[in-house]
Amino acid sequence: MAQSHVCSVFLVLLLTAVRTSGEFVPLGNSVKLQSDQNCSDGELKLDRRLKDDQPMEVARRVHGVWLPAESYKGRVENDSSAGILLKHVNFNDMGWYEFTCNGSSSFLISVKVVQITEVSMSVEEAVTLPCHSSTNDEPVKFIRWQRGAERVLEMNVSSGNTTYGTGLEGRVSLSSEWRSHGNLSLTVMRTGPEDGRLYSCFVGYESGNREMENPAVVRVSPQNSTEEKDRIQVLLGESATFPATRNCSKENAELIHRSCDKCTRPVARYQDGAWSPEPDYKNRVDQGDTVTLNNTNINDSGLYELTCNETATELDVVPFHVVQAAEGQTVTLQCHHVTTNKTVECAWWEKDGKRVFGTNFSSCEIKPEAGFEGRVSLADEALKRGNFSVTVRQVRQEDGGVYRCYVQVDGKKERGIPAATRLTVNEEKLGSYRRRWDRTGDAGIVQETLGSYMLQKEQKGFSLYRGDRENRGRPGSHSGMMLLK
Questions:
Q1: Where are the domains of the chain?
Q2: How do the residues of the chain divide into helix, strand and coil, expressed in percent and rounded to 5?
Q3: Dihedral sign, Cα of residue 288, residue 294, residue 296, residue 299
Q4: pTM above 0.85?
Q5: Over the stretch 96-110, which tens digit does the pLDDT of each residue have?
């Protein structure tokens, strides 16, 4: 679960004269203050306007070089002939800054200091970025989230259309309570390292005003861990290989399974140049240069520690459900999760590690990836019943594979039940048959092939065989099973 706290301060620049722009700078960093003209034939000066409108000099340009005022020494750095870098910004830097050319005002910059909220994330899990505002006082025109200067999500309230940043559609969503509760929070699913950025929340009103809301800026950072930990996920009964053991050649090094704080069990030991199984794993770990655990069971889940280099690997053994179908049939991939007194933002399915279809419950629209368009549907009353099963119509050979269901609950990615489904698609329709018949006088022969079974008309009655005619097993007489005309 992501945790948040107020950590630092950001500097926002709103350029209000010829142009308007915004820039976010962490507390203690530098910010560029630059005039829109060079004032090449005169004196260019930068003042800060105090509350009583009295100017306090920040710096002035002398022979092309910016010289700081006494109170700004050590904080002003030359950036260009038209501007400076103000370093080590602090909360007292809030206010108006004015460039004057030969004593005449040429450019004003409003500097606003706002709070930043820190949010930690775990890769592959969902994270919610908080943002709140009053949405009743004035008609809202749009709600926009940005990552730096890039758009993440923007919802046009009047049209109901939502546009997304590149690669973010299906991964980000706005709270469904934005209108009723003023909750503009953004949820990001299946987070990756690239999501560790600075985000800002804006509301545009019908009056033309555009405001940064509370908190104005959110910084998302990967969750720190005291130990590097790899993750392996296998289906129940499959083999799990621990790659880190290949790089371990320390005599008597061990791979230890830690299923709880005080529950440890040695799995394998490195001796005489090879890994050998410990007694409890004698029949499931082969001797070699890498440890592979065969025939995994649910009790194998947990943390595996390697003593030679203090690395850890999390093993996740996933029970699965088997579904078999024939091409053209309709199948249902089961998925359930408790939803009572929980906030469920979305659910999605992944096949072989890639998202194939999902739904956002604020829009109640299922979004299939390429190849599944028009063929998938969600169970009725999914949220009410906790049933996130998906029906796939007209299944194809390429639909076969391992599917995993995930539900985002209270901002956290959780697995559905069953955790995985293995879909096998057969070439022919189950229960169909091919008919071949060859009439030779009164002793006509009719063959009905049903899988590998054969029904043959003999002189008297019918016989059912397992296998083909030349290699048939023992027939059994079944008179009256089929009538030839």
A1: 4-114, 122-222, 229-317, 320-426, 434-477
A2: 5, 50, 40
A3: negative
A4: no
A5: 888 888 888 777 887
